[in-house]
Structure formats: structure tokens, C-alpha cells
């Protein structure tokens, strides 16, 4: 199967070898020729700057034809409040539609549940009056409306060179009694490989360590694992939500390597 990675960042780089070992023809896009040159020599690709300012070239159309596209374009919420995100996904959707791509695996975020509390699932009604939730949901919809799409709503990403013990060491910890909603890159990669194997699209799945761990316990243990200062629990709790992420297990037979986020850091 031809698989194209759009957005080869921290997670995309970890995906390259597993997908190749599964026998897929793996291609990648970067925003510049310099970025493209930094890819491993055995990974072919093309320059794709999103949003596109002009019609796709014949070479890009040929590259995307019949491919499964893994979209990991970040929303850029913290720095840019999502500016340009929807335009980028709209442009990608148009490219996949014009080129005749087979399907898309969209790496979205459990941030789409912003504003909700309690347990949330893929069927929960979203609080679209929240700007972040609305942005992420609109992004999901842009891709789904153009191509058969499997949307993966990822919890906070942890893994190689991204240890959560550094996130809040010695800092104020909000909502200490709330659930920590995180997922290890090992499980994200395993889920993507399974989805490609079963061609599980269209679909929407949460990906998050399924066992409940409080934020206070998790971040205290994570900081201790690196011998860093423990976070300081806030006295007042904020809106708390726990992402239920077992639908992919029930529907696809997926099994988490890290059932608890604690297993990934201690």
C-alpha cells in the first residue's frame, strides 16, 4: 500500500521504519526542499506547503493518487490560536480529492472534548462554543467531507525524548484529582499499523491510556522518575474529564502496550 506522511515531525519520524517493515511504500512531504533533504535517504517524497497557493502540480497529484494519507498537521493552538489550520486542512482535502487518494488517517486531538467534564467517548456531544473544540472539530470535518477518513483523537503524547516528568516539575498542577489523558507514541504507531492492515475507514477512535490515574499521582511519579521537583497541587479543581478510549479495542481488537500512563514513565 502507498502511504504518505504529511507532517513528519516527532511522531512521523517514529512511524517511518514500522510502516516500511509492514511492506508499505512510504512517502513523505515537507514544507521545503531543505526539510525534504533531511529525511532518511530511502524515503521518497515531495514538497508540500500548506495551504497551497496554487493548483497542485502533476507530480503531487501522481504522488497522492491511490495513497493512504496520514495527516499530522498540528493545529498550532498554543502559539497561533489555530491560525491557518483550517486553511491547511482544506487545501490538503482538495489535493486528496483531486488526486484520487484512497483514504486518510487524521491525527486529531482529545482537545476536541474541551469544555466537557466527566467521562467522554467518541459519541459525546461536543462543546462547540469552546474555540479550541470548535477548531479541532471543523478540521476533522474538512477531511471527512472530502475522503474516507479514520480520525484518531490522541491524548497528550509521550514517548522518546518527551518525558512528562519535565512538563510540570516544581510548577502549579491544576485539577490534581482529575484524570490524566495521555498516550504513548508506541500505542499510536501500533494503532495506525492496525488501521492500515484492516483498512478501518471511515471511523473515529480515541487513543488514550485506558486505566484511570489521577493527575497528581501521575505527575508526582513522573517527576520522581527523573529526580525532579514534584508539582504543586492547586487547591481548586478545574473542569475534569476522563477520555474513554476502548472503542478501538472492541471494534478492531487493538491492545494497548501501555494500559496505564504510569507504566510509560516509571
Automatic annotation (TrEMBL):
Coiled coil (UniProt feature) = none
Q: Which InterPro entries match?
A: NAD(P)-bd_dom_sf, NAD(P)-dependent_oxidoreduct
Q: Which PANTHER family match?
A: NAD(P)-BINDING DOMAIN-CONTAINING PROTEIN-RELATED, PROTEIN YEEZ
Stated name of the protein:
Epimerase
Q: Which organism is it from?
A: Alkalimonas collagenimarina
Amino acid at each position: 500500500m502507498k502511504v504518505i506522511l504529511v507532517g513528519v515531525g516527532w511522531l512521523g519520524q517514529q512511524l517511518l521504519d514500522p510502516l516500511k517493515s509492514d511492506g508499505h511504500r512510504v512517502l513523505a512531504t515537507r514544507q521545503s526542499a531543505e526539510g525534504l533533504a533531511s529525511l532518511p535517504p530511502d524515503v521518497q517524497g515531495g514538497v508540500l506547503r500548506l495551504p497551497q497557493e496554487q493548483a497542485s502540480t502533476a507530480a503531487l497529484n501522481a504522488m497522492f493518487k491511490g495513497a493512504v494519507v496520514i495527516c499530522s498537521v498540528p493545529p498550532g493552538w498554543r502559539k497561533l490560536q489555530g491560525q491557518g489550520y483550517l486553511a491547511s486542512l482544506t487545501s490538503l482535502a482538495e489535493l486528496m480529492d483531486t488526486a484520487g487518494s484512497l483514504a486518510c488517517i487524521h491525527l486529531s486531538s482529545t482537545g476536541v472534548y474541551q469544555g466537557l467534564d466527566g467521562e467522554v467517548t467518541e459519541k459525546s456531544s461536543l462543546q462547540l462554543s469552546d474555540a479550541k473544540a470548535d477548531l479541532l472539530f471543523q478540521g476533522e470535518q474538512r477531511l471527512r467531507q472530502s475522503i474516507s477518513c479514520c480520525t484518531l483523537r490522541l491524548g497528550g503524547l509521550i514517548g522518546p525524548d518527551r518525558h512528562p516528568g519535565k512538563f510540570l516539575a516544581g510548577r502549579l498542577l491544576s485539577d490534581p484529582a482529575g484524570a490524566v489523558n495521555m498516550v504513548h507514541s508506541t500505542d499510536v504507531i501500533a494503532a495506525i499499523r492496525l488501521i492500515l492492515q484492516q483498512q478501518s475507514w471511515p471511523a473515529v477512535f480515541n487513543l488514550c491510556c485506558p486505566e484511570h490515574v489521577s493527575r497528581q499521582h501521575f505527575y508526582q511519579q513522573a517527576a520522581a522518575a527523573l529526580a525532579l521537583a514534584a508539582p504543586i497541587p492547586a487547591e481548586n479543581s478545574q473542569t475534569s474529564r476522563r477520555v474513554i478510549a476502548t472503542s478501538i479495542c472492541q471494534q478492531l481488537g487493538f491492545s494497548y502496550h501501555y494500559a496505564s500512563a504510569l507504566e510509560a514513565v516509571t
